[in-house]
Amino acid sequence: YEQMVFSEATLAVPLILGGAVVSLYDTDFRRLRNGYVRSFHHDYDDYLQYLPAVAMLGLKIGGVQGRSSWSRMLVSEAITASIMGATINTVKHTANVTRPDGSNNHSFPSGHTAMAFMAATMLHKEYGTTRSPWYSIGGYTVATATAVSRMLNNKHWLSDVMVGAGIGILSTEVGYFLTDLIFKDKGITHSYLGFETFNYQRNPSFFGIYMGFSLMPTKFNLAPDVRLKASPGSTAGFEGAWFMNRYIGFGGYIGSYLSYPVTNRFLLGTKLLIGCNYSPASRISALG
Fold first, then answer.
1. pLDDT per residue as tens digits for the range 109-134
2. d(C-alpha 140, C-alpha 102), whole Å
3. In 24-56, which positions are buried (b, 16+ CB within 10 angstroms) versus exposed (e)?
């Protein structure tokens, strides 16, 4: 359990710190949004943020046994929601960051994103760690879609949603930690998933989807009076590989993957790929 708490906390902290760094480039990412989806305006994210919580309650009402009893789960959620709500509202009214659309000064951090990631982490704790990791995957997919939608709707900067996601996850960690101190072992209705039957000898084939952003030196001095300025860009794509055994695989663009199992639970890997990246638009500014 302590290892799972540590791994989730190590996801929340980089999100918060990364949001602080990315705030320097918020206008560049907003420019990307305005360049491709300026007319995007939909209200579904007002409801999407609650979907992981609705799924968790639906499973509980339907009799699917999760980690906690009703009383323990409700106390966990109440403490978590109180921590998240107090944190978000305090920071919003302290930071006074104007929204991208200029509607008010409560942009930072994103409350919708915090709610979505808080609910997704609850679902993960109650069912993803005890029944199937697919509950966790579904919950965090919905939370990520909520965060992206807030930016597409021009309601939040990238830094808003990154910090909001971190606060949502971290609030849940603290809420469940305090509940565990109160209840101890009382009200635990389902044990964590075990890995005793996991086949560690299987080939490590995989398929993944990634999203992120790229930074490069932002200023180039070509002459004493001429400089070039480049703005950050975004990146997204998918990657996969098929391994013929535990050591050698093929995939990605065009290339090979190598894997060495140091232990049953730890692999060292490398890849050699050939391919190209397509950029639909870019901008370089000359400064005199």
1. 999 999 999 999 999 999 999 999 89
2. 29
3. ebbebbbebbeeeeeeeeeeebeebbbbbbebb
Check residue 203 and give left, alpha or beta (phi > 0: left; psi -120 to 50: alpha): beta
Please report, to the nearest 10 degrees, the dihedral formed by the alpha carbons of residues 146, 152, 154, 158 taken in order: 70
The four Cα atoms 114, 120, 122, 128 give a dihedral, to 10 degrees, of -160
Tokens coding 62: 């339907």
Tokens describing residue 152 = 């597409």
pLDDT in tens, 236-250: 677 888 898 888 998
Q: What is the pTM of this model?
A: 0.77
